[in-house]
């Protein structure tokens, strides 16, 4: 398991590469050209400059999150072919600088959704929170809240230009059922996966967050059956999954250990984050440590270890600690993600020690219930 860190780029993140370098074990940066809108061309010189900036500090630049998929592709408009060509072209260019994995999602209109970005936790920190009852009837209210919460930063998936086109976007999705969205995803994959096979880049779809439909929009990557169907529909090792414990973990019906076990050979990237799910369906993001929330992260790490996982992982969202919410991106502070990276690597090292100790060391079962 190679530990990485999501970074939004120079001048677009309050955290610097020099700070990230001081977190032991973080060997790679998960990056993107965040100022690009979906469907825009990524120029070779821009890609090269960003990858070189990252590599010059000693990090790998092998994971990109995200290359956003244009809505015309998700809706299935005739213009999608042009956007798919641009996407394929970006895949080729990214392969040229050593990118191995592209994390992306196929959620209509909105990316991840929360109702409060700074929900106070009992320990005095705060974190992203989702309250089922307060999901606004009008998605515009939610978009405004999230854009406001981003402060000086643009929240990916919630760019202000999308807000201005919200009515238009909802109208365009009016006839897009789950089946049609699935077909449109398969159409997209049938075009880009051959390119991935040719240049050695793995696509890793991120599950929907939260793991259910919102605002009447279809969502299709939210449970074990849906993931199985999708992976079988385009059966290439270059078409795989970003296993995100925090997204899939929002739904109590999702058996996370079973999902990791079943798809282990198609998991190309892992987001590890804990959520505390309440009886009424609300959830809040909490510390990575076992017992803090509803997800048993050591158990998931153990299953990855058992399956010989050699891919990339990152601590996903964290709490905002020690007042950092005043300066950081919502969910992307420095401290709790650094704790998360160290905790997860600690679990991994413990498992490695047990393996090296041989059968007698087998008694050390981190994460065993
Ligand atoms: Mn995630």
Automatic annotation (TrEMBL):
NCBIfam families found in the cross-reference section: PRK03906.1, uxuA
Keyword tags: Iron, Lyase, Manganese
PANTHER family, A to Z: MANNONATE DEHYDRATASE
Cofactor (UniProt): Fe(2+); Mn(2+)
Protein name, UniProt field: Mannonate dehydratase
Entry similarity comment: Belongs to the mannonate dehydratase family.
Record-listed E.C. numbers: 4.2.1.8
Pathway terms, separated by semicolons: Carbohydrate metabolism; pentose and glucuronate interconversion
InterPro entries given in the database record: Man_deHydtase, Xyl_isomerase-like_sf
One Pfam assignment: UxuA
GO terms, molecular function: mannonate dehydratase activity
Catalytic activity from the UniProt record: D-mannonate = 2-dehydro-3-deoxy-D-gluconate + H2O
Role of this protein: Catalyzes the dehydration of D-mannonate.
Gene that this sequence comes from: uxuA
């Amino acid at each position: 398991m190679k530990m990485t860190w999501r970074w939004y780029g120079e001048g677009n993140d309050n955290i610097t590469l020099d700070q990230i370098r001081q977190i032991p074990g973080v060997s790679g940066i998960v990056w993107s050209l965040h100022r690009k809108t979906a469907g825009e061309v990524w120029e070779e010189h821009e890609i090269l400059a960003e990858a070189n900036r990252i590599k010059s500090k000693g990090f790998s630049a092998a994971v990109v999150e995200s290359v956003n998929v244009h809505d015309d592709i998700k809706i299935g408009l005739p213009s999608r072919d042009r956007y798919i060509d641009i996407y394929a072209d970006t895949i080729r260019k990214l392969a040229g600088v050593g990118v191995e994995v592209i994390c992306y999602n196929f959620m209509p209109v909105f990316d991840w959704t929360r109702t409060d970005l700074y929900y106070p936790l009992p320990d005095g920190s705060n974190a992203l929170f989702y309250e089922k009852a307060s999901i606004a009837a009008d998605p515009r209210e939610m978009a405004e809240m999230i854009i406001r919460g981003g402060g000086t930063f643009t929240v990916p998936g919630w760019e202000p230009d999308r807000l201005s086109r919200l009515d238009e976007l909802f109208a365009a999705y009016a006839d897009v059922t789950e089946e049609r969205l699935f077909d449109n995803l398969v159409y997209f994959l049938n075009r880009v996966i051959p390119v991935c096979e040719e240049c050695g880049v793995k696509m890793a779809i991120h599950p929907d967050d939260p793991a259910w439909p919102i605002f009447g929009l279809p969502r299709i990557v939210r449970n074990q059956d849906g993931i199985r169907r999708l992976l079988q529909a385009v059966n290439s090792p270059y078409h795989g999954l970003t296993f995100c414990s925090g997204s899939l973990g929002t739904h109590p019906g999702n058996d996370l250990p079973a999902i990791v076990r079943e798809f282990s050979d198609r998991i190309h990237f892992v987001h590890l984050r804990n959520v505390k799910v309440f009886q009424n369906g609300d959830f809040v993001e909490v510390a990575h440590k076992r017992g803090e929330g509803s997800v048993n992260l050591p158990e998931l790490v153990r299953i990855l270890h058992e399956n010989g996982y050699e891919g990339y992982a990152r601590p996903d969202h964290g709490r905002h600690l020690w007042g950092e919410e005043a300066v950081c991106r919502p969910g992307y502070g420095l401290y709790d993600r650094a704790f998360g990276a160290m905790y997860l690597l600690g679990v991994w090292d413990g498992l490695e020690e047990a393996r090296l100790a041989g059968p007698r060391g087998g008694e050390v079962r981190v994460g065993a219930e």
